[in-house]
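testing teh design pipeline on a random one, pls ignore if ur not involved
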C-alpha cells in the first residue's frame, strides 16, 4: 500500500504534465510548432543565463538563512551541507511535489545530527514565512491587474471544490490530533514526541537572535525570484515590452504551478502562455517563453541537485 501511494504521488503529477503538454500542442498547427522552434533559436541566452544565476543566488541565500534557524536550536551546521540539502530538495520536488522538504530534513539529520523532526519544523516555519511574503506579492499583483487576475483565476480554480476538500482535510486533521493527544497508545506517544520536535523547530523564528539577518535574506530570496523571472522576458523581443505588472502576474501564476505540481513540468509553460495571452502576447510566443524559462531552471536544478547528492557522501566521508 505504501509503495502504491508513492508510485501514485510520482505518476499523477507526471501524467498531469504530459496531459497539459498534449492539450497545449494539439491546438498548434505544424507551422506554429515550427514558429515556436524559431523563438528558441533566436532567443538571447545571455538573459536566460542571468536568470539562472539569480536563481542560484536565491538558493544559496536560502541555505544560509536556514542556518540561522538551526543555530537557534543549538546546531552549528556546515554551510556546504545546507546548500546541498537545498539543491537536492529542489531536484526531488521535480519528481514528487513537496518531497524536497522531507529530504532536506533527512540530509541534515544524517550529516549534521540535527533531529529530523526539529529540522522539519524549521522548514515548515520557513514555508510559512515565504507564504506570507508571497501573499504580499499576490496582493500587489491584484492591485495592479485586478480585473485580469480575477477573470483568469475564477476560470481555472474550482474554489468551491477546494473549500470542501480543505474542510474535509481539516476535520480529519482535528480527529487525528484528538486521537494522538487523548489516547495512551504507544504510537500516540511517538507521534506526540515527533510533533513536539516539529513545534520546537517552527517556533525557532520567534527565539532567533539574528532576526534582521533572517529578514534580509528572506527579502533577498524573493527579490532574486522576481528578478530571475523579469530578466528572462528580455530573452525574446516579443516579450521584452511587457509591463512589470504583467510580468508579476505571470510570475505568480507560474510559481503556483511549480508549488502544486512536480516542478511545473508541462503546467508551467501552459499557464504562462495562457496568462500572457490575456495581455496580448501570442500563444506561440508565450509557450516558447514558458518553456525557455522552465527548461533553463530545470537544467540548473538537475545539474546542481544531482551534483549535491553525489558530493554529500564524498564531502562527509568522515561522517
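output:
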Amino acid at each position: 500500500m505504501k509503495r502504491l501511494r508513492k508510485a501514485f504521488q510520482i505518476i499523477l503529477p507526471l501524467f498531469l504534465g504530459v496531459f497539459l503538454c498534449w492539450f497545449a500542442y494539439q491546438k498548434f498547427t505544424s507551422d506554429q510548432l515550427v514558429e515556436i522552434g524559431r523563438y528558441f533559436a533566436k532567443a538571447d541566452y545571455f538573459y536566460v543565463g542571468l536568470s539562472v544565476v539569480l536563481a542560484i543566488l536565491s538558493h544559496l541565500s536560502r541555505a544560509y538563512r536556514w542556518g540561522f534557524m538551526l543555530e537557534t536550536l543549538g546546531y552549528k551546521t556546515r554551510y556546504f551541507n545546507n546548500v546541498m540539502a537545498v539543491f537536492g530538495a529542489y531536484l526531488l520536488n521535480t519528481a514528487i511535489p513537496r518531497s524536497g522538504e522531507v529530504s532536506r530534513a533527512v540530509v541534515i539529520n544524517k550529516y549534521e545530527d540535527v533531529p529530523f523532526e526539529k529540522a522539519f519544523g524549521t522548514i515548515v516555519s520557513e514555508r510559512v514565512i515565504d507564504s506570507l511574503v508571497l501573499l504580499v506579492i499576490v496582493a500587489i499583483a491584484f492591485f495592479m491587474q485586478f480585473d485580469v487576475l480575477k477573470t483568469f483565476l475564477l476560470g481555472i480554480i474550482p474554489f468551491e471544490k477546494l473549500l470542501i476538500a480543505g474542510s474535509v482535510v481539516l476535520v480529519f486533521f482535528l480527529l487525528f490530533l484528538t486521537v494522538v493527544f487523548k489516547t495512551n497508545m504507544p504510537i500516540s506517544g511517538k507521534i506526540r514526541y515527533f510533533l513536539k520536535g516539529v513545534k520546537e523547530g517552527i517556533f525557532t523564528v520567534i527565539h532567533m537572535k539574528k532576526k534582521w539577518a533572517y529578514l534580509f535574506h528572506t527579502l533577498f530570496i524573493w527579490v532574486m525570484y522576481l528578478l530571475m523571472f523579469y530578466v528572462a522576458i528580455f530573452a525574446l523581443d516579443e516579450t521584452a515590452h511587457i509591463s512589470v505588472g504583467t510580468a508579476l502576474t505571470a510570475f505568480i501564476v507560474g510559481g503556483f504551478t511549480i508549488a502544486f505540481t512536480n516542478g511545473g513540468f508541462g503546467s508551467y509553460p501552459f499557464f504562462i502562455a495562457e496568462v500572457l495571452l490575456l495581455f496580448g502576447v501570442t500563444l506561440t510566443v508565450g509557450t516558447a517563453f514558458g518553456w525557455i524559462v522552465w527548461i533553463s531552471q530545470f537544467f540548473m536544478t538537475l545539474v546542481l541537485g544531482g551534483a549535491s547528492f553525489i558530493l554529500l557522501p564524498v564531502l562527509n566521508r568522515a561522517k
